[in-house]
Design brief:
Elements (H helix, E strand, L loop, with lengths): L1 E7 L2 E7 L9 E7 L6 H9 L6 E8 L5 H11 L3 E6 L4 H11 L4 E4 L5 E2 L3 H12 L3 E10 L2 E5 L10 H5 L10 E3 H7 L9 H11 L4 E13 L4 H4 L1 H16 L11 H13 L2
């Protein structure tokens, strides 16, 4: 094993990696973990069991206080593709940027620590992103909430999205995103945003002319449970999402007050994505 301690503008962190790392991975999977022991094993195994194999798996332990670090270490000892970053808690946004900066792949894939990637997710998304010559690609997902199972988004446009789609909420499931590395390393997440950071990133990229699309097939299972951010921080997400809409779509403060029918319809859709 190779152990390194590094410092960047976010603080000190440790990197543990195998001396037998893939030399030139095509894909870098980036996953940040904070107290994720309940679902972490399934999340890790869903990546390690992908039909596509040429990837590195960057797992960031963001100051977990449960058994997450031990679980990651167990899998790290078994699979040389895993790179463990251990750090004090700095939050999801900064953790993702750190993982992206350290990645070596041509494409970067997101994975959340409580979700599951279906076995052919990476291979199918890689084929789509190359065929369509776009820079950011999401996928439909099965959304699991209790015993209910729904598809999100219900419709997908493989040819890309107009700004109007994003104005009414974020149709993308964050954990499904695949980026061309050169694009995400140029734009990166806004570290001043704690929640809805993916929504801001996508709106900013679209306003810069970055090509974005969604695979019209569920390739991911998104869990909604009591401890998920979408449940615990829905009010904060909604507030930040409203600010993002105002910034990128020129929505006036009067429009955001909910005093007319168009506004009420807009707010209904925005709440739908952040509830």
């Amino acid at each position: 094993m190779i152990y390194e301690t590094k410092i960047d503008n976010r603080g000190k962190f440790d990197i543990i990696k195998s001396e037998y790392l893939i030399e030139k991975p095509i894909i870098s999977v980036v996953m940040s973990v904070f107290n994720g022991e309940d679902f972490l094993i399934e999340a890790i195994e869903s990546i390690l069991n992908q039909t596509y194999k040429n990837f590195e798996f960057i797992i960031i332990n963001d100051g977990s206080e449960d058994k997450s670090l031990n679980i990651i270490k167990q899998y790290h000892a078994l699979d040389s593709r895993i790179i463990l970053i251990n750090q004090e808690n700095i939050g999801l946004t900064k953790s993702l940027n750190r993982g992206i900066e350290l990645s070596r792949g041509e494409y970067i894939v997101r994975q959340d620590a409580d979700d599951i990637s279906l076995p052919d997710r990476i291979s199918k998304q890689l084929s789509f992103i190359k065929t369509l010559s776009i820079d950011i690609l999401g996928a439909q997902a099965w959304v699991q909430s209790g015993r209910r199972l729904n598809i999100s988004p219900k419709t997908a446009d493989v040819e890309g999205f107009a700004n109007a789609h994003m104005m009414f909420g974020n149709p993308f499931v964050h954990g499904t995103l695949m980026f061309r590395a050169k694009v995400i390393k140029q734009h990166t997440y806004d570290e001043g945003i704690k929640y809805a950071q993916d929504y801001e990133l996508l709106c900013r990229c679209m306003s810069s002319g970055v090509g974005i699309a969604i695979v019209p097939e569920p390739l991911y299972i998104l869990r909604k449970h009591n401890e998920s951010i979408s449940n615990r921080k829905s009010i904060e997400q909604y507030r930040i999402a409203s600010q993002i809409v105002m910034k990128y779509f020129g929505t006036s403060r009067y429009f955001m007050t909910g005093k007319n029918l168009v506004t009420k319809v807009f707010l209904h859709f925005l709440k739908k994505f952040y509830r």
